[in-house]
Each structure stands twice: as C-alpha cells, then as structure tokens.
Amino acid sequence: MSEKNSVGLVKAKLVKITKPLKLTSGKKLPNYELAYETYGKLNAKKNNAVLVCHALSGNHHVAGRYKKDDKYPGWWDNLIGPGRPLDTDRFFVIGVNNLGGCHGTSGSMSINPKTKKRWGSDFPIVTVEDWVNTQAALIDQLGIESLAAVIGGSIGGMQAMQWALSYPKRVRHAIVIAAAPNLTAQNVAFNEVARQAIITDPDFYNGDYYRFKKKPKRGLRVARMLGHITYLSDDAMDLKFGRKLKNKNIEYSFDVNFEMESYLHHQGDKFAEEFDANTYLRMTRALDYFDPAKDYQGNLSKAFKKVEADFLVVSFTSDWRFSPQRSKEIVKALLDNELTVSYAEVTAQHGHDAFLMSDPHYHGILTTYFKKIANQL
Q1: Annotated site (Important for acyl-CoA specificity), which positions (predicted)?
Q2: Residue 171's beta-bridge partner residues?
C-alpha cells in the first residue's frame, strides 16, 4: 500500500471516565483515563464504528503517524486507511490503550489520586472483562450505541469475543484473529517464566521501582526475548536467520555469535526501553485469566448462548502458540448455537505474528468481510 492509503497524521486523545469501575477482582477504581485515537468519520446514523483491540504489547496508536518523520506508523497501519481492508472512507475506527497500559491510560505509571504518587504495585489486576467494560464506557462517551464490528488479534481477539459475550446487543460483528478461547497450560507456563524474569530482577523492587528511579530492564528484556520466540514459527526463524553467524567465525564465547541471537537482543533492548514492566505483568495475567467457559463447567457452547453477533474467525497454519485447532473450538461453539460464523485458515510462515503482516490472502479475506459489513450500514 502506498502512503496515499494512509490515514496520515493523527493525534492521540484522552478521556476521563468519572463513573466508578468495579473490577472482576472485586476492587474499585473511582475514575480512570483512557488514551485513544480515531480514524475516519462517524456517519449520521452512528452505525459505522469499528473498535480495534490491541494485543499484549500494543496500544491505541493503531494507524498513521504523529509526525511526518516518524520512522514507523501505528502497529496495524497496513490494515487501516482509505482503500485498505478496514476502509476509513467507510468506517469510523477507534483504537484504545487498555486499562493498566503504559501509553497514557491509567495504570501503574499513573498518579494514584489518594496518595498523589504513582500507583506502582498498588494498581489492581485487570481482566479482559474489565477492558471491555472500560471500552464500552469510551463508546458511551463517543455517543455510539452499537459497534459495526470489534476486531483484534491474539488477546485482542479475546476482547472481541468478550464484547460479544458482555454486550451482545452492542456489537454486530466480532472478528477474532489468531486467538483462543483460553490459554493452554504451556502458554500459561510461558507467561509465568516471563513474569518471573521481571519479578526477580534486582531493580523490580516489588513493582515500586519508580520510587527508586529504576527500571527492571534486564527482566523485561528476557521476558520479551522469550515472548518473541513464541510469536515466530520455526520456519520463519530458519528462513530469516538459519545458522548465520554475526561475524565470519565462531568466537567460542558467550557473546553474540549467531544472527538469531543478535535479533533477540535487539528486540529485547528496544522493548525494555519502551515498555513498562508492571504493565507487562498485568497484560499477561489478563491473558492467563481469560476463560469464558469457566462458569459453564468448561462448556464453551453454553458460554456463547447469549451471543448475537456474526463472527469471522481467522487462524494461521504456522501459529503454534494459538493454533488453528484452538480457533476451531471457537467456531464449533458458535455453530452449536446456530450463529453465523465464517472461518479462514491462512497458510502463512510467520507464526503467531502473521496477524500483523500484510499478507494478500489474509487481507483479501478481511477486505471481503468488511465490504459485507459496509453494505449493511
């Protein structure tokens, strides 16, 4: 896609929600702020809004650039814009940074109104259900009664599912990409190892590192490196790096010898500079806790009984963290309730990260589906 298909220069916005929020954990927030961005225009009927839910390390900056010389656009820029699969000439697109985030939304880095200091470790644990409730509060503020669609990949796809569960009358289409109805034991294990890397960093200070002007960069770096391995497929890593050496010869040391190692170090270092450790802990915990079937004896079909939205479910053949089999569990539960569901399994080499890529087949599926939604407006 060319730059003419871009949404162009964008600005982040901040909204304060003054209605108290009761969290799934039982704790309450008297008020909170949400950082968000919008692209395109809300139509007269206010029925063309699409909410984009971000994955673990994402935020509200979904498309466009803040300045012309920004090196990178928003994290899903290849999907959103005039003439792109999620066409901003037809849809009003909303991106929001989830509660507990570190990009302007209330979280551990924010000021606790009671103490006048950063929340730090006192910021409560949040869940996917909590995120969806805060997103609904934002939608209320924007004067939107129902959403044309909610879309997300990975934990963003879980939020799209939860929207259909929590607000069946307020979402007409749920687009669930590279997601699962809950985490496998292996995925919970990956998250726990990542959290332990952060928690055991000497600079973590039980989550109150801000007070000491420290940052648990070493732990955050290792957590990101581990996570990144799970986002890529073996084929993608082999194709990109293989066993290529960083320098000509083996150095017989524990310094970086392989290109793969160099890549992981780069990703880890970059992430540790940009992201907040407390946010990472809370995002992974929300991922662990997501399980719509938990109150239905593990029966996902029963959990989906109140759902009214149409669904598009997309999986990728090389995604071993959220395999196509897990997407098929979602599809079966929807069909058991005689709901309208489309399913696509895309052949792709990129692993879990495939949902972020500009793959012609994948984007073609989304283009077709969004055209169908646009024709219903």
Answers
A1: 321
A2: 147
266 shares a domain with 215: yes
Specify whether 14 is located in the same domain as 146.
yes
Supply the CATH number for residue 196's domain.
1.10.1740.110
Residues 11 and 146 reside in one and the same domain: yes
353 is in an annotated binding site: yes
Regarding pTM above 0.85, the answer is: yes
Distance (Å, rounded) from C-alpha 264 to C-alpha 85?
A: 31
To the question of whether residue 224 is assigned a binding role by annotation, the answer is yes
Which domain covers residue 268, as residue numbers?
A: 187-285
| Residues known to be catalytic | 154, 319, 352
Of 230, 256, 285, the domain-final residue = 285
Mind listing the pLDDT tens digit for each residue in 317-363? 999 999 999 999 999 999 999 999 999 999 999 999 999 999 999 99
